[in-house]
Design brief:
Blueprint (H helix, E strand, L loop, with lengths): L1 H16 L1 H13 L15 E9 L2 H12 L6 E2 L8 E2 L13 E6 L11 H6 L11 H10 L20 H7 L3 E9 L3 H7 L8 H11 L4 E5 L21 H8 L6 E3 L2 H9 L7 E4 L30 H12 L6 E7 L2 H6 L3 H25 L5 E11 L2 E3 L19 E3 L4 E2 L3 E6 L3 H7 L2 E3 L3 E5 H12 L17 H6 L2
Parallel strand pairs: 1-9, 1-10, 4-16, 5-6, 5-9, 6-8, 7-8
Antiparallel strand pairs: 2-3, 4-14, 10-13, 10-14, 11-12, 15-16
Helix pairs in contact: 3-13, 5-7, 5-15, 10-11, 11-13
The chain binds zinc ion.
């Protein structure tokens, strides 16, 4: 465990070690801007929206691109035991595949493999199948910039509480929100809103959200009154929020306005006047759609009637509509949480459904930035915490084969694991600070190209774009307007 911690520190030093090349870039970037008013892209972003596809590896993206558009972008073929593995020419089709910054990310935690090894990962079919992170450790890395053990939320490897991005945003006078398609207190949102040694303490995580004061918006599945098929339970089930906290929410004894009904989420997305703080518990048990009866075992995506609940894009628009009332800006984390659940179930039909839902959510966010904000003030990052299910082309192992199919059909594909894998996952970024994210991708993978570490995606904000000191040495970002935080920072 110690050695892996040292290893992550070593990677950090490697990132700082390439400051020289970035310093050369910085003047070139600002040269086109007026000296009197620094270009906003050289300032820290006013708003940051992080979208996480839980379990979304390259092949989950491609399986769904094949279904939606008849294209793939990341396929590799070849047998490492008898020859080389090479990339098949690809076609980008998702909105995030047009973002200016596209790199990869390593995901390892303090449990399992101590580092990502690009040579080993492609030298045999089995390497990535072992020693993977879970969503708690990966989420903690993405939210706090610190590696920790699997199962741990918002604490470092020694159990110390570490600052996360919602806390930093709050200290800067910004608003904060978490949206997910799985329970609001599940591991990924928990890492952005709580500190807990046990990810399974789901009611404890919700209690922390309600009492801590950091979060303005929390929206997810996990309504105690409903099952996974949107049916009212005979007796409520308090697995994600305690009965006491649910009563407090219902009776208005928390700072949050409770929203449950589909019509109310739709109204939240378009309303001119929004509540200051919102707790959204969609009327469904553990997930919006993935757990509905018969879906996971269905032969084709969208062939089983859908739960009549809002999709992730609607929940996201509601959250952004609340958050953007703050003139200081906001931080939002949006999770497509059930891509992972489909992967664990080796269910291609629901994996495609969940990825379509996630892709539409990214499209909604891009549309939101285009119409209600701008790419000068809002940074959007799309990534994953890890891959789930070791999805590949059909008949892979020991060779990799390509996922390939026609539009509106499930491509032939194979699931090679019921768990998480340890390969690189994609990172897409657009907006102010995205060039800094590109600069942190100092690793090189023979198939995926430049990669950073998941901790970099938090640290680029915590120690660079949203820091008072230029710790990473990527250039000063002193032009952004945040009077509240600049006055209070020491
Ligand atoms: Zn998982």
């Amino acid at each position: 465990m110690n050695s892996s911690f040292v290893s992550s520190k070593g990677m950090r030093r490697a990132a700082i070690g390439m400051v020289g090349s970035i310093a050369l870039l910085a003047p070139a970037l600002s040269a086109s801007a007026s000296p009197a008013a620094p270009h906003r892209s050289d300032a820290g972003p006013k708003n940051v929206i992080v979208l996480i596809g839980d379990g979304m590896g390259y092949n989950e993206v491609d399986q769904t691109s094949s279904y939606q558009h008849g294209t793939t972008n990341y396929q590799v073929v070849g047998n490492p035991l008898t020859g080389s593995v090479k990339k098949v020419p690809g076609t980008p089709s998702q909105v995030y595949e047009k973002f200016p910054v596209q790199v990869a990310s390593s995901t390892y935690s303090l449990s399992g493999r101590a580092a990502y090894d690009p040579q080993a990962a492609w030298a045999g079919f089995g390497w990535v199948a072992d020693g993977a992170t879970d969503s708690a450790a990966a989420g903690t890395a993405l939210a706090t910039g610190v590696k920790t053990q699997n199962g741990v939320v918002g604490l470092d490897g020694s159990g110390n509480r570490v600052e996360n991005l919602t806390e930093r945003a709050k200290s800067m006078g910004k608003s904060t929100g978490l949206v997910t398609s799985v329970p609001f207190s599940h591991a990924t949102p928990a890492t952005y809103g709580a500190h807990n040694a046990d990810r399974n303490d789901l009611v404890g995580v919700t209690n922390e959200y309600l009492n801590d004061g950091t979060l303005d918006v929390v929206i997810g599945a996990g309504n105690p009154a409903y099952d996974d098929s949107h049916q009212l339970l005979a007796t409520p089930s308090f697995g994600y929020v305690s009965e006491q906290d649910w009563t407090r929410l219902k009776s208005g004894q928390t700072p949050f306005k409770l929203i449950e009904k589909t019509a109310d989420f739709k109204a939240l997305a378009t309303s001119k006047k929004t509540p200051q703080r919102v707790f959204g518990a969609v009327q469904v048990g553990s997930t919006l759609q993935q757990g509905r009866g018969g879906a996971a075992t269905s032969a084709a995506p969208f062939s089983v009637p859908r739960n009549d609940v809002p999709d992730l894009a609607t929940l996201t628009k509601g959250a952004l509509n609340v958050l953007d009332a703050n003139k200081n800006g906001y931080f939002a984390m949006i999770e497509g949480g059930a891509v992972d659940w489909a992967g664990h179930a080796n269910s291609s039909s629901t994996c495609v459904e969940e990825m379509v839902d996630f892709n539409r959510t990214v499209e909604a966010v891009v549309d939101w930035v285009n119409t209600k904000s701008s790419w000068d003030e809002t940074l959007v990052i799309v990534t994953a915490d890890h891959e789930t299910g070791y999805l590949t082309g059909a008949g892979s192992n020991p060779a990799w084969t390509a996922i390939d199919g026609a539009r509106k059909q499930l491509p032939a594909a194979a699931w090679n694991s019921a768990g998480h894998t340890n390969g690189l996952v994609p990172v897409y970024a657009k907006g102010p600070g995205s060039a800094d994210i590109r600069a942190l991708a100092t690793g090189t993978d023979p198939l995926r190209g430049a990669y950073l570490d998941n901790t970099d995606l938090a640290n680029v904000l915590l120690t660079d774009l949203w820091a008072d000191k230029d710790v990473l040495g990527l250039g000063q970002h002193n032009g952004w307007a945040n009077p509240v935080w600049l006055k209070t920072a020491s």
